[in-house]
C-alpha cells in the first residue's frame, strides 16, 4: 500500500525534542515544527540544571516562569542525590528541601551513613523507581500502601525516592503531605522520573502553542537544499519533507548524536566531521577525557544546507548538561 508523502512548510524546523529543542520551540518567532524521534537524554537525566560558571539570569527567569504552571515547578535551590551528595542549581520544587529531613532508603538503596538521618522501609521490592512511580500514579491502593509505610516514621520532613508519579506528582505530593502531616520531598536518582517529568511538562507546554507542531516518531536522515527529509510513524513507512527558513539541530550529544568511522567522528545527519584523530576503540580514557565529549559540533555548523540560517543547540552543539541546553535553546533565535 502506498503511503502519501507528508509535505510541510514552516519558518523553523528543529530536529530533536529534548530540553534545548523544546525551549527553542517555545521561544522562536514564526511557525515551528519539532521533529521528535523520542524522549532522548533529557528524559533519563536527573532533571537538575546545575549552574554553569557563567550564569544566564534572563534564561533562568524565563525557565522558572515557564515551568510554574505546568505541574512541574522549578526554583533555585539545593537537592540531594541518592549518593548523599548536594547539587545546586535549578531544581524541581519537589526536590528543594530546606530543613533536615529523614532520608528514606527504599529496599536498602541507601545504606546508613554518618551525619545523615537515613531510615529504611521495604516497599515493592524488585521494582525500579520508574515502575513504582507509575503504580503510585495509577493505582490508589499502591499510594495508600506507600503512605502507610511512611506513617511509621516519626519526622516532620521526609526525603523520599523519586516515586511520586510523572504527570500527577504535584497532586500526589499534596495528598501524601496531608495524610502524613509532614513535608515530603524527593531526592535525585538517575535515570529518574525527574527527567521524564521535565520533558513531559515542556512537551505539554509546547503542544499548547498554536505556532508549534511536534511530529512524533520522526527520524530525520537527510538535509538537502533547505529541506529536512526522513520517515515518520510507528512503522516508519511515511516519508516526510519539511521545508523551512531556519534549521536548528538539537539531535543530542556525542553519545547520541555523533558517529564514529575509524578515526573520524562525524554528526550523521549533516555529515559534519568533528575529529580525524581519535582512537576507534572507545576506552575509558576517551569517554572521560577526550575533548569531543564536551565540545559537540559548535553553535554554527560549517554549512547552511540551503537554509537561511542553520544552528546547533544543546548537547550536540556544546556537550552534555541541562543548563547549557537551556541557555542554547533560549538564545537559539537571537539575531534572526
From TrEMBL:
Entry keywords, A to Z: Flavoprotein, Oxidoreductase
Domain FAD-dependent oxidoreductase 2 FAD-binding stretches: 11-253
Source organism, top-level taxon: Archaea
Protein name from the UniProt record: Glycerol-3-phosphate dehydrogenase
Coiled coil (UniProt feature): none
Molecular functions (GO terms): oxidoreductase activity
Listed Pfam families: FAD_binding_2 (PF00890)
Amino acid at each position: 500500500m502506498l503511503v502519501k508523502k507528508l509535505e510541510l512548510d514552516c519558518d523553523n524546523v528543529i530536529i530533536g525534542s529534548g530540553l534545548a529543542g523544546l525551549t527553542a520551540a517555545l521561544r522562536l518567532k514564526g511557525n515551528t515544527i519539532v521533529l521528535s524521534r523520542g524522549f532522548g537524554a533529557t528524559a533519563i537525566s536527573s532533571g537538575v540544571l546545575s549552574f554553569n560558571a557563567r550564569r544566564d539570569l534572563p534564561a533562568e527567569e524565563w525557565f522558572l516562569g515557564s515551568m510554574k504552571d505546568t505541574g512541574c515547578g522549578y526554583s533555585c535551590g539545593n537537592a540531594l542525590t541518592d549518593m548523599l551528595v548536594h547539587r545546586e542549581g535549578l531544581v524541581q520544587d519537589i526536590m528543594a528541601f530546606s530543613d533536615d529531613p529523614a532520608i528514606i532508603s527504599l529496599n536498602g538503596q541507601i545504606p546508613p551513613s554518618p551525619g545523615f538521618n537515613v531510615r529504611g522501609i521495604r516497599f515493592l521490592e524488585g521494582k525500579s523507581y520508574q515502575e513504582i512511580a507509575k503504580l503510585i500514579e495509577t493505582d490508589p491502593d499502591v499510594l495508600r500502601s506507600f503512605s502507610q509505610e511512611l506513617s511509621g516514621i516519626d519526622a516532620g520532613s521526609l526525603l523520599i525516592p523519586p516515586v511520586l508519579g510523572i504527570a500527577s506528582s504535584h497532586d500526589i505530593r499534596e495528598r501524601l503531605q496531608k495524610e502524613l502531616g509532614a513535608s515530603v520531598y524527593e531526592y535525585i536518582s538517575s535515570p529518574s522520573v525527574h527527567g521524564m517529568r521535565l520533558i513531559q511538562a515542556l512537551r505539554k507546554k509546547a503542544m499548547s502553542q498554536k505556532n508549534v507542531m511536534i511530529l512524533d516518531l520522526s527520524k530525520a536522515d537527510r538535509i538537502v537544499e533547505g529541506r529536512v527529509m526522513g520517515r515518520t510513524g510507528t512503522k516508519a513507512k511515511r516519508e516526510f519533507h519539511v521545508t523551512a527558513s531556519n534549521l536548528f539541530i538539537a539531535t543530542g550529544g556525542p553519545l547520541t548524536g555523533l558517529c564514529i568511522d575509524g578515526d573520524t567522528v562525524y554528526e550523521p545527519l549533516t555529515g559534519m566531521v568533528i575529529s580525524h584523530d581519535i582512537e576507534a576503540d572507545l576506552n575509558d580514557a576517551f569517554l572521560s577525557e577526550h575533548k569531543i565529549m564536551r565540545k559537540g559540533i559548535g553553535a554554527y555548523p560549517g554549512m547552511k544546507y540551503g537554509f537561511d540560517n542553520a544552528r546547533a543547540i544543546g548537547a550536540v552543539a556544546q556537550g552534555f548538561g541541562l543548563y547549557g541546553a537551556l541557555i542554547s535553546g533560549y538564545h537559539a533565535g537571537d539575531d534572526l
